[in-house]
Write a structure and sequence with these properties.
alpha/beta, Rossmann fold, 2 domains, six-stranded mixed sheet, four-stranded antiparallel sheet, 9 helices
Length: 269
């Protein structure tokens, strides 16, 4: 596997200093259960932010809201200056048409816990599908990019294999390459190693480290505290739908200030 990934930080160069992600008083409920309670967060272009906390604390829901897989119930969310899922006209918000939602979502890569590869497609076909169908890119152009990405995640020899013939770690590396094939400006990772056997976790984290080194903006939900400490610029701790601690990675992991963070870090270690 190569030591660094290609700079794939977006289809267009980032030319301004506006936040890549900005959340203001974001709320989300499922029925009577309030999952996000006035969440505020700003992520700069090129920044790596790891989100930690107990299961059910709202981390994954927050990621899904950024990608508009879940609609928020209050507050505002912006990605690269655009309101997620809506367009503002005057003082009113109007929900975007599905096609525009899909277009904006295509600029955000997301890697899930359970890979979500198409089982009936080869590895290469999995990478080609979205750029060909959504972006309408020529097959030769996408194929060249896909093969380059597979080489960079150490899987060039698996292009014609089907997901069922790959280990969990290999499948997750394919999932990362598939997301990168869309040339996103933001990558979201929702506990990408939690479904893997312990001996396979390292190979996925190595790819994510290289991606962080390339300058990609990343939000990562993880329980891998060593990875968070070594790779993240910041770590935020979620507790019962709120961010209760936000600071430099080494400080939050090694010297947490909030009692809830202290208890979580101690338990995970």
């Amino acid at each position: 596997m190569s030591e660094t990934l290609l700079d794939v930080s977006g289809r267009d160069a980032i030319t301004n200093a506006q936040p890549m992600v900005r959340a203001s008083k974001v709320r989300k409920s499922f029925g009577r259960l309030e999952v996000l309670k006035s969440v505020d967060l700003t992520v700069a272009p090129g920044e790596v932010v790891c989100m930690i906390g107990r299961s059910g604390s709202g981390k994954s829901t927050f990621l899904r809201c950024i990608n508009h897989l879940e609609r928020i119930d209050g507050g505002r969310l912006w990605v690269d200056g655009d309101i997620v899922g809506y367009q503002q006209r005057g003082k009113k918000l109007h929900e975007l048409a599905p096609r525009e939602v899909s277009r904006r979502r295509s600029e955000i890569g997301m890697v899930f816990q359970h890979f979500n590869l198409f089982p009936h497609m080869t590895v290469l076909q999995n990478l080609l599908e979205a750029p060909r169908r959504v972006l309408r890119e020529p097959k030769p152009v996408v194929t060249e990019r896909a093969m380059r990405l597979l080489a960079q995640v150490g899987l060039a020899d698996k292009a014609t294999a089907y997901p069922r013939h790959l280990s969990g770690g290999q499948q997750q590396r394919v999932a990362i390459a598939r997301a990168l094939c869309m040339q996103p400006k933001l990558m979201l990772f929702d506990e990408p190693t939690s479904a893997l056997d312990p001996e396979l976790i390292g190979e996925v984290l190595d790819v994510m480290r290289a991606l962080a080194d390339s300058g990609m903006t990343m939000l990562v939900v993880t329980h891998e505290l060593g990875f968070a400490r070594d790779v993240a610029d910041r770590v935020v701790f979620f507790d019962e739908g709120r961010i209760v601690e936000d600071g430099p990675a080494e400080q939050v992991i090694n010297s947490p200030q909030h009692p809830r963070t202290q208890a979580f870090v101690s338990a995970v270690r």
